[in-house]
């Protein structure tokens, strides 16, 4: 790992402070929230915080999908500043907590700070082995292209070989996502994206399809893939067919085939490249071992990227993703302990 250089990977996402609570199904019903779903907060969720504070015990952890992924990636690589996080936060104590946690975990932090909104939060509601996410983007939605164009950030972009964005980020700054996608294509870098949540394909279909031709590696889970297919009227729920069709969508980069990775909870992970499909069994954990499934998807991508950016075979990348997800769901929140034990 000594040859691993700094600034290989940049992630663009929404840094959020996670407010995690184990709640009743009645609370989900009250706020029209679904198990294992992720949404942006609406007016009807205005009193959700108050309900949690009064009726349940909550913990506060550093969150945001991309930031979680990069933290896991850094943990596995065990060398600081391989990855850099971009996103917007407020000028408040929550932002200080996020930056401190990210820096402690080895990330190079390049936040944009705004006076116009507080740092974003995400309510994480745990029911049994399911979780429901409700995000208040707040400051995260104030990210602008101007931040990328600052000379010191432009300089950093020139060094990077891998770029990763969440589908969530498309709801915040499509111009920034397109700028990074075009930059990656021009400089022969790898542009990667996560479908993130079903609502991205539903409510932000046009931005998603604007950036899709630049995507070299795409991540998503089964429900997100099925929703993507439904929004494109593909008339199939066959995940293998959906994965192949996504892999064969038009590409701007004609030098390499698109890679699509679809996770299916405890079912095998599917890897698509060209005409090939490979499946990878997932480590089975007992109910007692599963503490919190929040962050499992983020951790999977973190594990995958930790191997991918050091040019390990795709089989090793997927295996590391599966291993990382298994570690995270045995902890509360997207947290990890000790030195990683993965051996590819």
From TrEMBL:
InterPro entries: Adenokinase, Carboh/pur_kinase_PfkB_CS, PfkB_dom, Ribokinase-like. GO terms for biological process: AMP salvage; purine nucleobase metabolic process; purine ribonucleoside salvage. It is an enzyme of class 2 (transferase). It is found in: Nucleus. The active site is at 298 (proton acceptor). Residues 31-336 form the Carbohydrate kinase PfkB domain. The keyword Ribosomal protein does not apply. SUPFAM superfamilies: Ribokinase-like. GO terms for cellular component: cytosol; nucleus. Pathway: Purine metabolism; AMP biosynthesis via salvage pathway; AMP from adenosine: step 1/1. Monomer. ATP dependent phosphorylation of adenosine and other related nucleoside analogs to monophosphate derivatives. This is Adenosine kinase. The lineage of its organism: Eukaryota, Metazoa, Ecdysozoa, Arthropoda, Hexapoda.
């Amino acid at each position: 790992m000594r040859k691993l250089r700094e600034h290989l990977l940049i992630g663009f996402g929404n840094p959020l402070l996670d407010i995690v609570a184990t709640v009743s199904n009645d609370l989900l019903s009250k706020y029209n929230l679904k198990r294992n779903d992720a949404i942006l907060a609406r007016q009807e969720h205005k009193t959700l915080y108050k309900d949690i504070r009064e009726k349940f015990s909550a913990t506060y952890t550093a969150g945001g999908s991309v930031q979680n992924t990069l933290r896991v990636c850094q943990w596995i690589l065990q060398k600081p500043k391989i990855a850099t996080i971009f996103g917007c936060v407020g000028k408040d104590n929550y932002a200080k907590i996020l930056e401190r946690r990210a820096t402690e975990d080895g990330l190079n932090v390049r936040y944009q700070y705004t006076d116009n909104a507080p740092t974003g939060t995400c309510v994480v509601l745990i029911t049994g082995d399911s979780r429901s996410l409700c995000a208040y983007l707040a400051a995260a939605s104030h990210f602008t292209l101007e931040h990328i164009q600052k000379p010191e950030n432009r300089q950093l972009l020139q060094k990077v070989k891998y770029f990763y964005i969440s589908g969530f980020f498309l709801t915040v700054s499509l111009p920034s996502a397109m700028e990074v996608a075009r930059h990656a294509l021009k400089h022969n870098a790898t542009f990667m994206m996560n479908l993130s949540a079903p609502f991205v394909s539903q409510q932000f279909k046009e931005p998603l399809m604007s950036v899709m031709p630049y995507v070299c590696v795409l991540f998503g889970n089964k429900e997100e893939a099925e929703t993507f297919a439904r929004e494109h009227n593909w008339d199939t729920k066959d995940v293998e067919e959906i994965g192949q069709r996504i892999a064969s969508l038009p590409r701007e980069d004609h030098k390499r085939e698109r890679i699509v990775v679809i996770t299916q909870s405890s079912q095998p992970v599917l890897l698509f490249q060209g005409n090939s499909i490979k499946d990878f069994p997932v480590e089975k954990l007992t109910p007692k071992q599963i503490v919190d499934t929040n962050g499992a998807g983020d951790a999977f991508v973190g594990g995958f990227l930790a191997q991918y950016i050091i040019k390990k075979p795709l089989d090793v990348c997927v295996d590391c993703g599966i291993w990382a997800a298994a570690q995270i769901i045995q902890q509360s929140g997207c947290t990890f302990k000790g030195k990683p034990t993965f051996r590819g």
